[in-house]
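cron nightly-structures :: item 1 of 1
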Amino acid sequence: MIRIKDKIKLLDFFNILSEDEVDVLQGISKITTYPEGYTLYYEEEVKDAMYFLLEGVAKAYKVDRQDNEIFLNYIYENTLISEISSLNETQITCLSNVEFIKDSMVLEINYRAFQEYFIQTHILTIQFLDEILRRNKQLYCIIDREIVFDAMAKVAYSLYDDLEMFNKLKRQEVANMLHIQPATLSRVLKKLLRQNIIAVETTTISILQRDALKKIFSGVSE
């Protein structure tokens, strides 16, 4: 039997809570498991709950007017899934679509009760402000990736930011995620290989010069 209290204690977001406060949080929470491929919510949905990913992996994405998927980011364990943009509203408006890409376990918290017990009393206000700022920084990274970066910078950033996921995906999936052609991805990887910035064994990539990768997408490469 899953103990909600034990799962809450594993989340870094709540590590400042006292035992009594964890008990309160447990009383307004539940745990749900979801299969791979399940969509937790769609963009513009309004939710009464806040979600944390306990186990598994999810992806956030948007869909353009031509029904093309625009990848935003992956969501990993020990992470807030919900996109919080205000501390005053009692519901959460979803800013993207979130789909599980592995079987996953989620902590679901009643948001109105959470605000009453933990936000209005300022117990977790700093944590929420930190989260909003982190999401804001993440948004700028997404803008860079989608608008500013060329193909070389996109690939370098993806390798630097999440090598494990890069290696798990098929090359076609990586190309789709970065909105470049598979042939372009192949050319970039070959160039990085020739420059001795990465190494490739079978299909697994390892990074030899992490600083060199960063220089590529930070705009100071030669």
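cron nightly-structures :: done
The domain at 4-143 is CATH 2.60.120.10 (Jelly Rolls).
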